[in-house]
Amino acid sequence: MERWAGSVAFVTGASSGIGEAVVQQLVDSGLKVVGFARRKQLLDQLAKDLSSKKGKFYTYEGDVSKESDVLKAYQWTKENVGPVSIVINNAGAINYSKILESTTEKWRQVLDVNVLGVCISTREAIKHMKENNIDGHVINLNSVLGHKVGSMDGDIYGATKYAVTSLTETLRLELAKENSKIRVTSISPGAVQTETLDKVLELAKLPPGAVSTLAASDIADAIIYVLSAPQSVNVSELIIQVTGEIF
User: Fold this and answer.
1) Does the keyword Oxidoreductase apply (predicted)?
2) Which residues does the annotation mark as catalytic?
């Protein structure tokens, strides 16, 4: 991770779960990290917790489903921290429902976060990289449900993750045709112990611990692994599951 020391990373959904775990590791590695999330109180507490670390953590309150929030956050980052070298599109949304019992409004909410939010954040990050000749890295938090249809009542969640799989590879090919050195990665975890999973289990009337899970730190470790690969190596897709997971 030495090559990234002092570089700027932009992390969406940074206030808890995988986002919080990866922020901690990036700051430990000496990066300047902008954490973008809706819950300012959690961001502020994380900033206090990381105040003595090697790198520096900056907070930005915003909603990834609102384009104006994302645009303002990237502009603020450029003016106050520096151009973005790494973007980790981690923010996600899920509606626990059957498709035929859902609503158009709920579909839009999930699409705005899981698909359009990724597109907008990626576009703005790559603008920073190209304008400053940065051989950066785009990392999209995907899911095993972006590769195989599951049986859970996840509404259109799986469909949005299939979109992330396609978006990531389409972007990689676009950049390759430009002879760009910007790397693009999709990271697809199985079940991860997060607030979101707790809510899904509650709605499914399943007890805590009913599903074997990865820790958020396991996914953060994988992100560090991908970032640490030589510049000539692009880890395009990484699927991470609990040992013995049947899916």
Assistant:
1) yes
2) 157
